[in-house]
Specification:
Strand order of the largest sheet: 2-1-3-8-7-6
Distance between the termini: 46 Å
Structural class: alpha/beta
Strand content: 15-25%
């Protein structure tokens, strides 16, 4: 089993000024190559701390991959520190210097002297050419330990990783096995309840493995298999998924990347239906989720934010006495909103949300988090009552996603 560790360098990462997309990319690719990644470290542009991070990583991993710190400035010290850990010095690599000079010439720019730093390579290192920038990467081998230095800019890093690092690792280790994952996206069942349904599977897991992840009010079940190839892994995951679906299939709305909005949209297309939504407390979030999906104009016709009572009455034809007697946050108001927007837009389906997102506006009878969601179908209208927990943003997000899930279930004929 080959074990790798990733070290991301750069103080800008620690300060939150740059999002570390490199770590996500490399982690996923290593898994596909069958290389295990147990630790990730982010360290600033500090020689002492970087040296300690490298030494620690080499003590527990076969391969240490660094990103960043290969540029021309005095703060770009990754190669220097890496070579020092292996007791090597840097020397000028003429071929790399010529490549850097050629890049500057092609761009019509003057090359400053400090760019020569990028062509300084550790003694005995394998040079990884940079086909998308100037700074070359390097591979240093010392006994059974390896350090791979990759550039920080994601576009350059990805190109070098695919063009040079992957072929090197494949040849070096004769990589054959793959680690392959599948994510079952669930909604409407809490993490503890979901765990209870598949507790026996979690306890006896080996290969494939099962992990539960909470993601923006969804629960993701990540299934991961170690196999000789993707086809074998896919078969293993398929068998496990089938077992899980017999337990909680109604809560699984998608596999891998599909969102609730996309899944609901696909069902609308399949059934040749259109939808419009009327939102109060969610303030347009449902419409935004629909229109985030390319091609949603095929089924999403209109979104209306009726935040005030007057807007509900004027635009959606909610009855004045409904609001005066039962309130804007009520089952009947949600029903009339859903039917009203369906009539207004001339769609097959009308979706409505009205609630109290807080922190104010609540009463003893109507607490913060109380939400009514209406789904007006061609033959009937259903209204659902919820009391969501959390802050204002969380309540609004949960309400919007619940509305989409209820639409999905109604289109499937599953109800709740």
């Amino acid at each position: 089993m080959m074990i790798a560790e990733l070290i991301s360098t750069g103080s800008e990462l620690l300060l939150g000024q740059v999002v570390n997309t490199n770590a996500q990319y490399i982690s996923a690719r290593l898994a596909e190559l069958g290389i295990h990644l147990f630790f990730q470290t982010t360290v600033g542009d500090n020689r002492v701390r970087m040296e300690k991070a490298l030494s620690t990583a080499l003590g527990r991993a076969d391969i240490v991959i660094t990103t960043g710190g290969l540029g021309p400035t005095l703060g770009d010290i990754t190669k220097e520190v890496s070579s020092g850990v292996f007791g090597r010095t840097l020397e000028l690599h003429e071929e790399s210097l010529k490549r850097i000079q050629a890049v500057f010439a092609y761009r019509g720019l003057k090359m400053t002297e400090n760019n020569i730093r990028q062509a300084m390579i550790p003694q005995g290192a394998i040079v990884l050419p940079n086909n998308r920038g100037t700074a070359p990467g390097v591979v240093m081998e010392e006994g059974n330990k390896i350090i791979i230095n990759l550039p920080g800019p994601p576009y350059e890093m990805q190109g070098m990783f695919e063009d040079a690092a992957v072929p090197y690792l494949t040849a070096k280790y004769g990589l054959k096995q793959v680690i392959y994952s599948r994510v079952l996206r669930c909604f409407g069942l809490g993490e503890s309840s979901l765990e209870e349904e598949i507790k026996d599977l979690l306890k006896q897991q080996s290969n494939p493995t099962i992990a539960l992840l909470a993601r923006e009010r969804e629960i993701h079940i990540r299934l991961t298999a170690l196999a000789d190839d993707v086809a074998q892994a896919d078969s293993m995951l398929g068998s496990l998924e089938e077992v899980i679906r017999t337990r909680i299939g109604q809560y699984i709305f998608a596999v891998n990347e599909d969102t609730l909005a996309k899944v609901a949209g696909n069902l609308l297309v399949e059934r040749k239906c259109t939808v419009a939504c009327a939102e109060s407390c969610t303030g347009g979030m449902i419409a935004a989720m629909f229109t985030d999906v390319p091609g949603s104009s095929a089924y999403f016709v209109q979104g209306v934010v009726t935040y005030t009572n007057e807007a509900k009455i004027k635009l959606l034809k909610v009855k004045e006495h409904t609001i005066s007697r039962q309130g804007a946050v009520s089952e009947q108001t949600a029903r009339e909103m859903a039917e009203g927007v369906r009539s207004l837009a001339g769609t097959d389906v009308g979706l409505s949300v009205t609630g109290i997102a807080g922190p104010g506006g609540a009463t003893e009878a109507k607490p913060v988090g109380l939400v009514y969601i209406g789904v007006a179908m061609p033959d009937s209208t259903s209204v659902y009552k919820y009391v969501f927990s959390g802050d204002r943003s969380s309540i609004r997000l949960y309400a919007a996603k619940t509305a989409l899930d209820l639409l999905r279930r109604n289109l499937l004929g599953a109800g709740t």
